[in-house]
Amino acid sequence: MVDFGSWGDFALRTFVNVSPSPQWANKQIEPFLGLPFGTYLRCPPPTRPRRLTAPLDSSQDSIWQRLQVLAYIESEQRCSEQEQSGFLSKLPYDVRLIIYEMVLGGQVFHCYAQNAKSRITHYVCNRPEMIEAEGSQHKCSDAFYDQRPSISGKTAMSALLAPLLTCRKMYSEAIPILYGSNTFVFSQNFAAFGFLKLKLPQQRLPCFRRFRLHMRIPRHPDLNSRANRDWADLWNFFGTEMTGLQSLYLEIQMLQPTEAQIEETPDDQASSWLKPVVVMAVEAQRARGCQVEIEIRGVKHRPAQIHVEVAGSLPDAAKAEIMEQSCSVFHQRIRTSLG
To answer: Which residue intervals define the domain DUF7730 in the entry (predicted)?
Structure first.
């Protein structure tokens, strides 16, 4: 099918809206739909009336901000040196960072939302030491129910917000620690990508170090051009925008038709949808030691490790051949995990 980009997406939505039977219309357009996170990935970044993080150096100001000063217009609000604060004026910056990490870091946040338009909230995992070993089987006891809008939930949240709301300088120093020293776990596509692409300033994306997502895939990434585009955009997003990742874990849940298509696809013809995964995993591991893990039906796959194994077994092969063979082996292992 010809891909008309956003115009094609608009046409499909319009077809459903004007149809006398939306249920019938949705069934008709199903073979042409993309993946559920695609629209989020193509959204423009959010904007704010002014930056919350202060430019710690005037050289970071834009030309327009400097012209404002010359024109006697009040320049963008700056943060004071806070000389009256012993914490900010006497402690070295490196020591302050250690303190921020002790206060804000070392936790696992389970993030969720009621629907795509509702507020994203979180609860703190009470068994963080087990999350790596348990994978998709990880449970946090009754924490989810105990910490939903309640007094204890508000108290836990205020402890995180207090340092960030103290002053603009402390916010500027501490906010990267909040995203970089904790593990963020999402169980919904709309909550994860609504947060990353619609609510969070894009300059914060490289701050993330550990990210986990339970991802539901309603259709095969190779079903049509839209799904293929969305799948490629997903891995490009992880590779080029979340550039600080050191651990990326995706638990992928597929519907039966998607699993059937995987089982019917020859392993040597799977590179069109697995190559973006392997490329991102290999490049991220080489650049910063990032480990990409994909769990399907309880079986964990490490694309970068598969690439290393294939390269070792084919020492004289060209890079393109190694990549194709890596995708083939990866697909074979996914098929096996489906049983």
So the answer is: 81-278
- pLDDT (mean) for 250-254: 96
Identity (one letter) of the amino acid at 126? N
Strands lying side by side in the sheet with 108-112: 121-124, 108-112, 183-186, 210-217, 247-254, 291-296, 299-301
> Does 215 score more than 50 pLDDT?
yes
Residue 23 to residue 97: CA distance in whole angstroms:
54
pLDDT beyond 60 at 6: no
Q: Could you tell me the end-to-end alpha-carbon distance of the chain, in angstroms, rounded to an integer?
A: 32
pLDDT digits (tens, 9 = 90+) for 164-185: 888 888 888 999 999 999 999 9
The DSSP call for residue 242 is S
Tell me the C-alpha distance between 163 and 8, whole Å.
Answer: 46
pLDDT band for position 89 (cuts 50, 70, 90) = confident
**Residue 326 contacts by C-beta under 8 Å, 6 or more apart in sequence?**
278, 303, 306, 307, 310, 311
Cα–Cα distances (Å) from 308 to 179, 246, 313, in that order, read 30, 18, 9
- Residue 22 near residue 16, CB atoms below 8 Å: yes
104 close to 174: Cβ distance less than 8 angstroms: yes
